[in-house]
UniProtKB/TrEMBL annotation:
This is tRNA (guanine-N(1)-)-methyltransferase. InterPro entries: Alpha/beta_knot_MTases, tRNA_m1G_MeTrfase_C_sf, tRNA_m1G_MeTrfase_TrmD, tRNA_m1G_MTases_N, tRNA_MeTrfase_TRMD/TRM10. The keyword 4Fe-4S does not apply. Pfam families: tRNA_m1G_MT. Residues 261-274 have a biased composition (Basic residues). GO terms for molecular function: tRNA (guanine(37)-N1)-methyltransferase activity. CDD domains: TrmD-like. It comes from Achromobacter pestifer.
Length: 274
Protein backbone atom coordinates (compact mmCIF):
# COMPACT_ATOMS: atom_id res chain seq x y z
CA UNK A 1 0.00 0.00 0.00
CA UNK A 2 1.31 3.42 -0.94
CA UNK A 3 0.02 6.59 0.71
CA UNK A 4 0.68 10.01 -0.81
CA UNK A 5 -0.10 12.98 1.41
CA UNK A 6 -0.47 16.54 0.23
CA UNK A 7 0.36 18.69 3.24
CA UNK A 8 1.90 21.98 4.30
CA UNK A 9 3.49 20.10 7.23
CA UNK A 10 5.25 17.00 5.84
CA UNK A 11 7.29 16.69 9.04
CA UNK A 12 4.16 15.72 10.98
CA UNK A 13 4.07 12.38 9.13
CA UNK A 14 7.24 11.13 10.83
CA UNK A 15 4.82 10.00 13.55
CA UNK A 16 3.47 7.13 11.42
CA UNK A 17 6.49 6.68 9.15
CA UNK A 18 9.15 6.36 11.87
CA UNK A 19 7.50 5.30 15.13
CA UNK A 20 5.85 2.24 16.63
CA UNK A 21 4.05 -0.50 14.73
CA UNK A 22 3.50 1.61 11.60
CA UNK A 23 7.15 2.76 11.62
CA UNK A 24 8.37 -0.83 11.86
CA UNK A 25 6.08 -1.84 8.97
CA UNK A 26 7.35 1.11 6.90
CA UNK A 27 10.96 0.05 7.54
CA UNK A 28 10.00 -3.49 6.44
CA UNK A 29 8.60 -2.10 3.18
CA UNK A 30 5.03 -3.23 3.92
CA UNK A 31 3.72 0.22 3.01
CA UNK A 32 5.21 3.50 1.83
CA UNK A 33 4.51 7.13 2.51
CA UNK A 34 5.27 10.11 0.27
CA UNK A 35 4.57 13.68 1.27
CA UNK A 36 4.00 16.47 -1.24
CA UNK A 37 4.11 20.08 -0.12
CA UNK A 38 1.86 22.38 -2.20
CA UNK A 39 4.42 25.14 -1.60
CA UNK A 40 6.77 23.24 -3.90
CA UNK A 41 4.24 23.76 -6.71
CA UNK A 42 3.94 27.54 -6.47
CA UNK A 43 5.50 30.05 -8.86
CA UNK A 44 5.89 33.20 -6.78
CA UNK A 45 8.70 34.24 -4.45
CA UNK A 46 6.50 33.91 -1.37
CA UNK A 47 5.44 30.37 -2.35
CA UNK A 48 1.82 31.39 -1.76
CA UNK A 49 -0.69 28.60 -1.19
CA UNK A 50 -3.63 30.53 0.26
CA UNK A 51 -5.61 33.71 -0.32
CA UNK A 52 -8.57 35.63 1.06
CA UNK A 53 -12.06 34.19 0.54
CA UNK A 54 -14.28 35.64 -2.17
CA UNK A 55 -17.37 37.15 -0.58
CA UNK A 56 -15.37 38.18 2.49
CA UNK A 57 -15.30 36.58 5.90
CA UNK A 58 -12.58 35.43 8.25
CA UNK A 59 -9.51 33.36 7.47
CA UNK A 60 -7.82 32.21 4.30
CA UNK A 61 -8.59 29.54 1.72
CA UNK A 62 -6.12 27.11 0.15
CA UNK A 63 -5.72 27.84 -3.57
CA UNK A 64 -6.67 25.20 -6.13
CA UNK A 65 -3.55 25.47 -8.36
CA UNK A 66 -0.78 24.26 -6.01
CA UNK A 67 -3.02 21.50 -4.65
CA UNK A 68 -3.89 20.19 -8.11
CA UNK A 69 -0.24 20.31 -9.22
CA UNK A 70 0.76 18.31 -6.10
CA UNK A 71 -1.94 15.70 -6.80
CA UNK A 72 -0.81 15.39 -10.42
CA UNK A 73 2.80 14.88 -9.29
CA UNK A 74 1.67 12.15 -6.89
CA UNK A 75 -0.39 10.41 -9.58
CA UNK A 76 2.58 10.53 -11.99
CA UNK A 77 4.93 9.08 -9.38
CA UNK A 78 2.46 6.25 -8.77
CA UNK A 79 2.00 5.62 -12.50
CA UNK A 80 5.79 5.39 -12.90
CA UNK A 81 5.65 2.47 -10.44
CA UNK A 82 2.90 0.78 -12.43
CA UNK A 83 0.16 1.69 -9.94
CA UNK A 84 -3.30 2.66 -11.18
CA UNK A 85 -4.85 6.10 -10.70
CA UNK A 86 -5.36 6.55 -6.98
CA UNK A 87 -8.50 7.84 -5.29
CA UNK A 88 -8.00 11.34 -3.91
CA UNK A 89 -9.43 11.86 -0.42
CA UNK A 90 -9.81 15.25 1.20
CA UNK A 91 -9.86 15.25 5.01
CA UNK A 92 -12.87 17.40 5.88
CA UNK A 93 -15.41 17.69 8.70
CA UNK A 94 -18.15 17.56 6.05
CA UNK A 95 -16.92 14.17 4.81
CA UNK A 96 -18.07 10.64 5.52
CA UNK A 97 -17.05 9.44 8.97
CA UNK A 98 -14.00 7.15 8.87
CA UNK A 99 -14.59 3.79 10.54
CA UNK A 100 -13.15 0.29 10.77
CA UNK A 101 -14.78 -0.72 7.48
CA UNK A 102 -13.06 2.28 5.85
CA UNK A 103 -9.73 1.22 7.34
CA UNK A 104 -10.25 -2.34 6.09
CA UNK A 105 -11.04 -1.26 2.57
CA UNK A 106 -8.02 1.09 2.52
CA UNK A 107 -5.77 -1.73 3.78
CA UNK A 108 -7.05 -3.97 0.99
CA UNK A 109 -6.27 -1.36 -1.68
CA UNK A 110 -3.17 0.02 -3.40
CA UNK A 111 -3.55 3.11 -1.23
CA UNK A 112 -4.66 6.65 -1.93
CA UNK A 113 -3.75 10.32 -2.02
CA UNK A 114 -4.77 12.24 1.11
CA UNK A 115 -5.23 16.01 1.01
CA UNK A 116 -4.79 17.90 4.26
CA UNK A 117 -6.68 21.16 4.38
CA UNK A 118 -5.66 24.15 6.51
CA UNK A 119 -7.12 27.58 7.25
CA UNK A 120 -10.84 27.83 6.41
CA UNK A 121 -10.57 24.97 3.94
CA UNK A 122 -9.76 24.50 0.25
CA UNK A 123 -11.09 26.12 -2.94
CA UNK A 124 -14.24 24.21 -3.97
CA UNK A 125 -13.07 24.03 -7.60
CA UNK A 126 -10.13 21.87 -6.54
CA UNK A 127 -12.58 19.55 -4.76
CA UNK A 128 -14.82 19.37 -7.84
CA UNK A 129 -11.91 18.65 -10.19
CA UNK A 130 -9.67 16.32 -8.20
CA UNK A 131 -11.28 14.92 -5.05
CA UNK A 132 -13.06 11.56 -5.22
CA UNK A 133 -14.11 11.31 -1.58
CA UNK A 134 -14.16 13.38 1.61
CA UNK A 135 -13.26 11.76 4.91
CA UNK A 136 -14.12 13.08 8.37
CA UNK A 137 -12.60 11.95 11.63
CA UNK A 138 -15.69 13.01 13.60
CA UNK A 139 -17.98 15.86 14.49
CA UNK A 140 -15.35 18.33 15.60
CA UNK A 141 -13.07 20.79 13.84
CA UNK A 142 -9.31 20.32 13.76
CA UNK A 143 -6.84 23.05 12.77
CA UNK A 144 -5.74 20.99 9.80
CA UNK A 145 -6.21 17.65 8.05
CA UNK A 146 -2.85 16.22 9.17
CA UNK A 147 -4.00 14.71 12.47
CA UNK A 148 -7.01 13.18 10.72
CA UNK A 149 -4.75 11.79 7.96
CA UNK A 150 -2.44 10.25 10.58
CA UNK A 151 -5.41 8.45 12.13
CA UNK A 152 -6.63 7.22 8.73
CA UNK A 153 -3.17 5.87 7.88
CA UNK A 154 -2.50 4.27 11.28
CA UNK A 155 -5.83 2.42 11.39
CA UNK A 156 -5.26 0.97 7.89
CA UNK A 157 -1.55 0.10 8.18
CA UNK A 158 -2.03 -2.01 11.33
CA UNK A 159 -4.44 -4.19 9.31
CA UNK A 160 -1.90 -4.97 6.57
CA UNK A 161 -0.76 -8.62 6.53
CA UNK A 162 2.27 -9.21 8.76
CA UNK A 163 2.22 -5.77 10.40
CA UNK A 164 0.95 -6.95 13.78
CA UNK A 165 2.49 -10.04 15.32
CA UNK A 166 0.29 -12.61 17.08
CA UNK A 167 0.54 -10.88 20.43
CA UNK A 168 -0.69 -7.63 18.86
CA UNK A 169 -3.28 -9.26 16.62
CA UNK A 170 -6.05 -6.96 15.43
CA UNK A 171 -8.48 -9.87 15.50
CA UNK A 172 -9.56 -9.28 19.07
CA UNK A 173 -9.93 -5.54 18.64
CA UNK A 174 -13.22 -3.66 18.78
CA UNK A 175 -15.28 -3.67 15.53
CA UNK A 176 -13.38 -6.67 14.18
CA UNK A 177 -15.27 -9.50 12.49
CA UNK A 178 -13.60 -12.03 14.80
CA UNK A 179 -15.33 -10.17 17.64
CA UNK A 180 -18.61 -10.08 15.67
CA UNK A 181 -18.13 -6.32 15.24
CA UNK A 182 -18.63 -5.75 19.01
CA UNK A 183 -16.57 -3.66 21.44
CA UNK A 184 -13.51 -5.25 23.03
CA UNK A 185 -13.68 -6.59 26.61
CA UNK A 186 -11.63 -5.03 29.48
CA UNK A 187 -7.97 -6.02 29.93
CA UNK A 188 -5.92 -6.68 33.07
CA UNK A 189 -2.24 -7.31 33.79
CA UNK A 190 0.05 -7.68 36.81
CA UNK A 191 -0.21 -7.14 39.74
CA UNK A 192 -3.07 -9.51 40.49
CA UNK A 193 -4.35 -7.13 43.18
CA UNK A 194 -4.03 -3.40 42.55
CA UNK A 195 -5.03 -0.93 45.27
CA UNK A 196 -7.19 -3.64 46.81
CA UNK A 197 -8.91 -4.51 43.53
CA UNK A 198 -8.48 -8.00 42.20
CA UNK A 199 -8.39 -9.25 38.63
CA UNK A 200 -11.75 -10.94 37.82
CA UNK A 201 -11.60 -14.59 38.91
CA UNK A 202 -12.38 -16.21 35.49
CA UNK A 203 -9.22 -14.61 34.01
CA UNK A 204 -7.13 -16.34 36.68
CA UNK A 205 -8.81 -19.72 36.27
CA UNK A 206 -6.72 -20.99 33.35
CA UNK A 207 -9.97 -22.47 31.99
CA UNK A 208 -10.04 -21.36 28.35
CA UNK A 209 -13.76 -21.82 27.76
CA UNK A 210 -14.62 -19.86 30.91
CA UNK A 211 -12.20 -17.08 29.96
CA UNK A 212 -13.68 -16.83 26.45
CA UNK A 213 -17.21 -16.77 27.84
CA UNK A 214 -16.29 -14.09 30.40
CA UNK A 215 -14.73 -11.94 27.67
CA UNK A 216 -17.67 -12.45 25.33
CA UNK A 217 -20.14 -11.47 28.05
CA UNK A 218 -18.15 -8.33 28.92
CA UNK A 219 -18.08 -7.43 25.20
CA UNK A 220 -21.83 -7.91 24.93
CA UNK A 221 -22.44 -5.88 28.10
CA UNK A 222 -20.23 -3.00 27.00
CA UNK A 223 -21.61 -2.96 23.47
CA UNK A 224 -25.26 -3.07 24.46
CA UNK A 225 -24.69 -0.19 26.90
CA UNK A 226 -22.51 2.05 24.76
CA UNK A 227 -23.19 1.09 21.14
CA UNK A 228 -26.49 -0.83 20.93
CA UNK A 229 -26.54 -0.37 17.15
CA UNK A 230 -23.51 -2.70 16.91
CA UNK A 231 -25.55 -5.45 18.62
CA UNK A 232 -28.30 -4.96 16.03
CA UNK A 233 -25.75 -5.10 13.20
CA UNK A 234 -24.27 -8.34 14.61
CA UNK A 235 -27.77 -9.80 14.94
CA UNK A 236 -28.57 -8.90 11.33
CA UNK A 237 -25.33 -10.54 10.20
CA UNK A 238 -26.33 -13.67 12.12
CA UNK A 239 -23.11 -13.71 14.17
CA UNK A 240 -24.70 -13.78 17.65
CA UNK A 241 -24.93 -17.25 19.16
CA UNK A 242 -27.82 -18.59 21.19
CA UNK A 243 -25.64 -18.18 24.30
CA UNK A 244 -25.10 -14.50 23.32
CA UNK A 245 -28.85 -13.95 22.89
CA UNK A 246 -29.50 -15.62 26.22
CA UNK A 247 -27.00 -13.36 27.95
CA UNK A 248 -28.43 -10.24 26.26
CA UNK A 249 -31.95 -11.25 27.28
CA UNK A 250 -30.71 -11.76 30.84
CA UNK A 251 -29.16 -8.27 30.81
CA UNK A 252 -32.44 -6.84 29.57
CA UNK A 253 -34.25 -8.64 32.40
CA UNK A 254 -36.24 -10.91 30.10
CA UNK A 255 -34.34 -14.20 30.08
CA UNK A 256 -35.06 -16.52 27.19
CA UNK A 257 -36.69 -19.81 28.20
CA UNK A 258 -34.31 -22.72 28.58
CA UNK A 259 -34.27 -24.86 25.46
CA UNK A 260 -36.73 -27.76 25.73
CA UNK A 261 -34.90 -30.90 26.83
CA UNK A 262 -34.90 -33.44 24.06
CA UNK A 263 -36.94 -36.43 25.15
CA UNK A 264 -35.78 -39.85 24.23
CA UNK A 265 -38.30 -41.41 21.89
CA UNK A 266 -40.24 -43.90 24.01
CA UNK A 267 -39.67 -47.46 23.09
CA UNK A 268 -42.62 -49.21 21.53
CA UNK A 269 -44.23 -51.41 24.17
CA UNK A 270 -43.89 -55.12 23.52
CA UNK A 271 -47.17 -56.65 22.48
CA UNK A 272 -48.97 -58.24 25.40
CA UNK A 273 -48.89 -61.98 25.44
CA UNK A 274 -52.35 -63.25 24.71
C1 LIG B 1 -10.12 24.71 10.48
S1 LIG B 1 -10.51 23.35 9.45
C2 LIG B 1 -11.71 24.03 8.34
C3 LIG B 1 -13.08 23.76 8.78
C4 LIG B 1 -14.15 24.22 7.78
N1 LIG B 1 -14.20 25.63 7.67
C5 LIG B 1 -15.50 23.69 8.26
O1 LIG B 1 -16.11 24.34 9.11
O2 LIG B 1 -15.94 22.62 7.79
C6 LIG B 1 -9.08 23.16 8.44
C7 LIG B 1 -8.90 21.77 7.87
O3 LIG B 1 -8.79 20.82 8.89
C8 LIG B 1 -9.24 19.58 8.42
N2 LIG B 1 -10.25 19.08 9.36
C9 LIG B 1 -10.83 19.75 10.36
N3 LIG B 1 -11.68 19.00 11.04
C10 LIG B 1 -11.65 17.79 10.50
C11 LIG B 1 -12.34 16.56 10.76
N4 LIG B 1 -13.23 16.46 11.73
N5 LIG B 1 -12.07 15.50 9.99
C12 LIG B 1 -11.18 15.59 8.98
N6 LIG B 1 -10.49 16.73 8.68
C13 LIG B 1 -10.73 17.82 9.42
C14 LIG B 1 -9.77 19.78 7.02
O4 LIG B 1 -8.80 19.36 6.09
C15 LIG B 1 -9.99 21.27 6.97
O5 LIG B 1 -9.87 21.79 5.66
Amino acid sequence: MRIDVVTLFPEMFGVVRDLGVTGRAHAQGRWSLHAWNPRDFTHDVHRTVDDRPYGGGPGMVMMAGPLEAAVNAAQEARAALGLGRAPVALLAPVGRRYDQAGAESLAASEGLILICGRYEGVDQRFIARCVTQEISLGDFVLSGGEIAALAVIDAAVRLLPGVLNDGESALQDSFNDALSGLLDSPHYTRPEVYEGESVPAPLLSGHHANISRWRRERSLELTVTRRPELIEAAREKGVLTLADERYLAELAGTPLPEPAKRRRPSRPKPPKAS
